[in-house]
Amino acid sequence: MQTKIDEYKKEVDLFEPSNKEALEQFRIRFLGKKGILTDLFADFKNVAPDQKRLMGQLINELKNKAEQKLETYKESFESLVVVGNTFDLSRPAEPIKLGTRHPLSVVRNEIISIFSRLGFTVSDGPEIEDDWHNFSALNFPQEHPARDMQDTFFINKNPDIALRTHTSSVQVRVMENSKPPICTISPGRVFRNEAISARAHCLFHQIEGLYVDKDVSFIDLKQTLLYFAKEMFGEKTKIRLRPSYFPFTEPSAEMDISCNICGGKGCNICKYSGWVEILGCGMVDPNVFTNCGIDSNVYTGFAFGMGIERITMLKYEINDLRLFFENDIRFLKQFSSAV
Ligand code: PHE
Questions:
Q1: Among 19, 112, 186, 330, which has the highest number of CB atoms less than 10 A from its own CB?
Q2: 59-75 burial by CB neighbour count: b if 16+ within 10 A, else e?
Q3: Which CATH number does the domain housing residue 220 bear?
Q4: What is the pLDDT of residues 259-289, one digit of tens each?
Q5: Domain count of the chain?
Q6: Residue 339 above 60 pLDDT?
Q7: What pLDDT score does 179 carry?
Q8: Do residues 260 and 304 both lie within one domain?
Q9: 204 closest CA partner among 151, 244, 160
């Protein structure tokens, strides 16, 4: 009996199945109901008492070996593709599909890259803000309509806390915590209580910029924005500044660029005016400096802010803002070649 068991052990050791069927044959031969091990255990009854201990041990060893072999190959067959009777190791691997960057990320990165070439750093801040950083420090009068429930998502239990409505709040934090010269942009998500449509959403993305130093003038602002517009929309792009109002800048302006779609001739994107509005800007109001601990007699500065969705829509001629949030792969994969 012992020699028989030794032979079986050798057989198990040498066994290398090339497919699932061979492995199944092996299982039936050794571990099946009418298999070798069943026979061996049956014969065990006839073993002489002084041999029982040794034989029992040997049979169990064989059983464990056979079971182990079965387990090892079972796993590998389950995880491999089998072609015919063999593994086809020459089959080309299935390429792993890379995701594509979201168009808003593509444009955000491009804007960051343009401003970083001018020396702007990137600053980050919380999306849940207090009244001070989102409004009060920015010179919003207490009764300003932008604080109204219609525009701002306040936290029910605490009217002092809200979802930030612009990333100007980050600039307040930067001014509070550092000394001029300050030259930074703050990209991020902002929230406003707006009805969702092709042109508006309750969540969107902004990039705001701030430059504070001695002798910063409106000319610096204009030149910075002209550089940005040309880099973003092409060398031929023209800009135009129209007077506007923001509580935190004085004077304030809104900037239009010459329509990059019709080249200024007039189309439905620019509403046949040849110009499209892309951002708000102005010279930082001295009150804001005082609120943030910066001496407004020594320093001046400019600020600007733009919606990334709007820039992306103009750049790629996208006519519905909701597309950015639907995560439809057919839309998203069109931007795969963009940087
Ligand atoms: N914070 C303004 C907005 O959200 C944009 C802006 C920034 C305007 C800086 C002027 C200066 O609309």
A1: 186
A2: beebbebbeebbeebee
A3: 3.30.930.10
A4: 988 887 888 888 889 999 999 999 999 999 9
A5: 2
A6: no
A7: 95
A8: yes
A9: 151
State how far the Cα of 210 lies from the Cα of 217, in Å rounded to an integer.
13
Please identify, by atom number, the ligand 1 atom nearest to the C-alpha of residue 166: 4
In terms of domains, do 14 and 113 share one? Answer: no
Residue to probe by mutation, ligand 1, list 224, 248, 278, 287, most atoms within 8 Å of CB: 248
Domain boundary among 78, 93, 122: 78
pLDDT tens digits, residue range 190-232?
999 988 988 889 999 999 999 999 999 999 999 999 999 999 9
Return d(Cα 30, Cα 307) in angstroms, integer.
Answer: 71
Give the atom of ligand 1 at the shortest distance from the alpha carbon of 138.
1
pLDDT at position 133: 96
Give the residue numbers spanning the domain of 310. 103-338
Per-residue confidence (pLDDT) for residue 87, from 0 to 100: 75
Over residues 94-113, mean pLDDT = 90
157 conformational bin, left if phi > 0, alpha if psi -120 to 50, beta if neither: alpha
Work out whether the CA dihedral 146, 148, 151, 152 comes out positive or negative.
positive
From 151, 168, 184, 306, mutation site for ligand 1 pocket: most ligand atoms within 8 A of C-beta:
168
